[in-house]
Amino acid sequence: MTVPQDNVTPAPPTPESASADSLAKAAGQAAAKGGLPPVHLWDPPFCGDLDMRIARDGTWFYQGTPIGRAALVRLFSTILKREDGRYFLVTPVEKVGITVDDAPFVAVDFTARGAGRDQVLTFETNVGDTAVAGPAHPIRVTRDAATGEPAPYVMIRAGLEALIDRKSFYRLV
Predict the structure, then answer these.
(1) pLDDT of residue 18
(2) Contact status, residue 77 vs residue 47, Cβ threshold 8 Å
(3) What Cα–Cα distance (Å) separates residue 154 from each residue in 28, 53, 93, 110?
(4) Distances (CA, A) of 155 to 15, 43, 70, 106, 109
(5) What are phi and psi of 20, to 5 degrees?
(6) pTM here?
(7) How far does the chain reach from its first CA to its final CA, in angstroms?
(8) Exposure check for the chain: N or C terminus, fewer CB within 10 A?
(9) How many other β-carbons are positioned within 10 Å of the β-carbon of residue 35?
(10) What three-state secondary structure class fits 99?
(11) How far is Cα 131 from Cα 35, in angstroms, rounded to an integer?
(12) 2-22 residue pLDDT tens
């Protein structure tokens, strides 16, 4: 007797089945609907860690090799989530851990409108996100304990920050 395919429950994802390809496919499907995927609503099972890393300069690596396609990096950035100090790529059915050296994004530029209390700063990230600095998108600066060098950040979305690049930081100060 054969079981109709509609009644077959797929096996839960495992670290072996979770791959960059499956994540990219899910991200692409979510992106096709417009806007950012609702990752805050997704709570899939943890499938293990993926050999993916975001370097301090914003470069994304997969299995030690830089991901050269900006569109693919953008897709992955839309399914990025932070929980309990760790970073994950999530879809409705899988969640994999990735390594982030500092912040997942880099603020590569900003525009300033107005002056004084009416000034509005809009930051743009290396993946095309924008954020207007303010209560929902605060700017913070930390200092390296060893060198004393400042490290400025702006909140982009849902606990995900961008390191403000050096040229932008010096334009701010």
Answers:
(1) 55
(2) no
(3) 26, 20, 30, 11
(4) 30, 23, 22, 11, 14
(5) -60, -35
(6) 0.81
(7) 73
(8) N
(9) 8
(10) strand
(11) 15
(12) 444 444 344 444 444 456 676
How many angstroms separate the CA atoms of 33 and 53, rounded? 27
Q: Which two tokens stand for residue 119?
A: 């000034």
Nearest partner of 88 among 137, 125, 47, judged by Cα: 47
102 φ/ψ angles, rounded to the nearest 5 degrees: -140, -95
Q: What angle do CA 134, 128, 34 make, to 5 degrees?
A: 95
CA 165 vs. chain centroid, Å, equals 16
Q: Extract the tokens encoding 93.
A: 């059915």
CB 30 within 8 A of CB 39: no
What tokens were used for 74?
């953008």
CB 103 within 8 A of CB 163: yes
Write out pLDDT tens, residues 149-167. Answer: 999 999 999 999 999 999 9
Whose tokens are 């990735």? That residue is 98
CB–CB of 77/129 below 8 Å? yes
